[in-house]
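Q: Structure for this?
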Amino acid sequence: MSMFKSWRARVALFLAVVGPGFITASVDNDAGGIATYSVAGAQFGYSLLWTMIPITIALVIIQEMSSRMGAVTGKGLSDLIREEFGLRATFLLMIALFVTNFFNIIGEFAGVASSFELFGVSKFIVVPLSAFVVWGIVVHGTYSTVEKVFLSASLFYVAYIVSGVLAHPDWRAAALSTLTRPDSVGFRNYGYLSMIIGLAGTTIAPWMQFYLQASIVEKGVTMRQYTASRLDVIIGCLFAAIVAWFIVVACAATLHSIGKFNIETGADAALALRPLAGDYAYLLFAAGLFNASLFAASILPISTAYAVCEGLGLESGLDKRFEEAPAFYWLYTLLIVFGAGVVLIPRFPLFRVMVLSQVANGVLLPFVLIFVLLLINDRELMGKHTNSRWYNVISWVTVGVMIVLTIAWLIAQAPW
Amino acid sequence: MSVVALSELLGATVRDATGAVRGRVREVAIAPQDHPTRIAYFIVKTADGERMLAPSAITSAGATVRAASEAAQWEIFTPSDGLLLLKRDLLDQQIIDIHGRKVVRVNDVELESTPVNSHLLIDVVAVDVGARGAIRRLSKGLVPSFTLRALLEKIPPRVIPWQFVDLLETDPARRVKLKIAYKGLAQLHPADIADIVEDLPPAEREAVFETIDEEVAAEALEEIDPDIQVSIVESLDKERVADIVEEMDPAAAADLLDELTEAQSGEILRGMEPEERREVTHLLEFGEHTAARLMTTEFVAVPETAVVDDAIEALKTFEGSREALAMIYLTGPGNKLVAAVPLVTIATSSPAAGLSQLSEPYRACAPDTPEDEVAALFDKYNLLSLAVVDEHGRIAGIITADDVITMLRHA
């Protein structure tokens, strides 16, 4: 009886804090993420699956630090950067975050457009409608209702697992290349190397640290519930990694095996899957892309508006009227209107903007991660909850590798 | 008399009596124990360590600080947590703007220097929370200072005078040393205090509730969002919580205790005075959404034999909220409710008139009446207040219209 009771209490405790970590990790598999995983599967088959485990570890380590910082300080990341590093550093970082996230938002709306074009619905209908839904969910929902909508959207990622199964992959080969050390021959291939970098870069984006920490704070998680909250982060990252794994596998089992390597986006992948894996796999893949894009498009504008306003000390919050928090509402509205509007411009170079958004993420990421590491080791701020020595070694190595990979990737992307 | 911004002083070169550059200003310190607004000294980073330079030895302070003494005479700085350091403790930090009733972030600090004899007195006069301070800091060193000054003059200032600033400090010992008491905050309406507290991070919330008067804390706590109430109560020590809960309206206290675990609410109840504890535990016996939980036990009841004058005397000594005074209740033997007289009738009748002759029909309900039925009664009969009567016909409390509005808004 008491066993049952304590088990039930533990489940209740977990359910009370589940959300931020799970949602953040899921949104990570956005339009850009799905495109990258699809391309990785199509071009290199199962041979890149080994990257999933190290990438997941890096993701867990970085996300855990953000959520711990939120639980200990009760403040958002941009607040902390402002308080510890001053106005000038914050100002520059906020401009960079705004621009980067704006490109990301365009990418998400482009994902919305392309997913519905697969069903023959014009983007001129879908994109404005989606922008309106995005605006409505956030403006008219409370934190807990919005979180429920988002959690349901996270569960919808199961679509990718199903379409992965429908693709009838070679399970043995897939499992083997996930768990075994990669063949060193591949590393001499330039395309293979740059794909690894792309995978790492798409998995950890700067906005995630701001969003995750802010939602931990908003949910009111403190160190008392932190054990459960950490579990939320870990499970979220694992789920996101499993979804990514299935996307790679689906494309590897179909596109790669018939030699169709040249896809660029998630929509391309869905289309190419159809004759190989059947209508259901195609539908699930396309619907998953729509869900992922809309989901990320809902989170990015609001999280950007909050982060920028809090860092710069401007009034923010949906409980304020427009006149009370003009900067906040303007930022939010501009991001949605222009993010969605740009996608509707005829002959707009969408694919290049999506690449550009990844580049912007890559430029910003090292700065954000270094701020995170400096803050989390600030004893005055974190008290006894700073990183332990071994955790610091792992996290600096992780961040160092991420930075090196990102810089390498940027150099690879450069037009010269 | 001239105004100088903290951001202009920080990093300013310091010249001693000989005119030679001796260092740069690193910090500006106030010692609140000695004077609440006066600058005690600048901390100057010199070639041989950090030194203190008091305004009494300064002849001018701006982009260059000129001292009247030789650098060798400046004392070595030793850190102490009884000092308010303007850069570390104020710049970029959040403060409470008492006048504007909100939490704001400091962009710059305005100091006023007054020449006295051949030296200066420097005081903090205001904090800048607007674009002017932000732009000054962002463009410092990038734009020539005269262009910058001309530009800044065009920007309307958004400053908070120092007397309307309440600092946030989470360390209780340091709070005492810096004389931070949230006096300004405590003057505000409890609902405004609640709004401000909801905007603060948890540690700062705790600091406010540890410091302010129990009565104010209780009224503010009643107005705070239930989830945040719980987190505040969990963070404070249980004795302090018991003191605050004692001062709360019993119905609000019962609602709060219901949100806590049994162990937590038990501990708080044990810490309370017996009378308040009895009242709250009695309310806890009723379900969460019942009339008993909406009612207040502070109302005016006089014997049915009383006259208008008696009622007026009772009003004079009444300490509860004014919303409860729409009706004066008349009780018979055994505290049984027998009649009610509207306040307006009392105000317009002669002092010697018997209250029972003035009585008008009143509405009452049982303590376990569901709250939606209570709301329906208010709506149907256009009530301002409703008596809650127990199974023996005794008046247990009253519900007022504002309680019903709050209940409906939170439903």
